[in-house]
Amino acid sequence: ETGVTQSPTHLIKTRGQQVTLRCSSQSGHNTVSWYQQALGQGPQFIFQYYREEENGRGNFPPRFSGLQFPNYSSELNVNALELDDSALYLCASSPGQGTDTQYFGPGTRLTVL
Amino acid sequence: AQSVAQPEDQVNVAEGNPLTVKCTYSVSGNPYLFWYVQYPNRGLQFLLKYITGDNLVKGSYGFEAEFNKSQTSFHLKKPSALVSDSALYFCAVRGRNQGGKLIFGQGTELSVKP
Q1: A97: nearest CA partner in chain B
Q2: B99 in reach of chain A (CB within 8 A)
Q3: Is the N or C terminus of chain B more exposed, i.e. has fewer CB atoms within 10 Å?
Q4: Cβ contact (<8 Å) for B102 and A45?
Q5: Interatomic CA distance for residues A91 and A67, integer angstroms
Q6: How far apart, in whole angstroms, are the C-alpha atoms of residue B76 and residue B23?
Q7: Beta carbons of A84 and A60 less than 8 angstroms apart
Q8: A86 touches A78 (CB < 8 A)
Q9: Rounded to an integer, what distance in angstroms lies between the CA atom of residue A106 and that of residue A100?
Q10: Continuous H helices in B24-91
Q11: What is the number of other CB atoms lying within 10 angstroms of the CB of residue B5?
């Protein structure tokens, strides 16, 4: 196990609702990245936070937003949920940037009905 | 555009035989390369990475990967497959000026039969 935890494990929402997913990074890690993994696909980068600042963003609309707290835990917020938002959301933490390996949590399975 | 290709959706091998899972990439400059494994309903587990230096990288659980710059490939290998190696394998690349963004391939399902 990596020491990265995510909550909740599973979540069911309806279209138009808002959702918040949470991630606790591994001890000593100050960088958190979020990925979306649709069924049968590889993970897609959403954004990264380094020391509470957004440090890069993938091709996702503004209704995907995030936050990192002083203890380096992080939240992913998605507004106005769409059916295509149904996916496994993965959080990864790393000791820093650059060459550092990203260690993934178990993910949150979001289903949008 | 930067991309990663895993040309085989599925690889089947017999237990005890060598295995290879292929990965090619298209990234400008000298990228960082990674392999991860995913078991059903689980997150990704890190196997190994190439940053610089020796082209043959050794990782967890007996896996290794060979970086070939001229062929822009980073194939995952293991000399003797185990049934427990059956899982979904992802190759990922990060450009040297891309911050923390990992670009993943679509994954290869490895099935090892007894």
Answers
A1: B100
A2: yes
A3: N
A4: yes
A5: 12
A6: 8
A7: no
A8: no
A9: 19
A10: none
A11: 14
Residue B83, both tokens: 């049934």
Structure tokens at A99: 């060459």
Distance (Å) from the C-alpha of residue A86 to the closest C-alpha of chain B? Answer: 15
**A31, A97 contact by CB (below 8 A):** yes
Q: Which among A33, A103, A104 has CB closest to B100?
A: A33
Residues of chain A predicted below pLDDT 70: 1, 97-99
Rounded CA gap, B1 and B4, in Å? Answer: 10
For the record, the structure tokens of B31 come out as 């990228």
pLDDT digits (tens, 9 = 90+) for B20-79: 999 999 988 888 999 999 998 778 999 999 998 899 999 999 999 999 999 999 999 999
Length of chain A: 113
- A70 vs A2, A53, A67, CA distance in Å? 21, 11, 10
Dist. CA B90–CA B105, nearest whole Å: 6
DSSP 3-state of A33:
strand
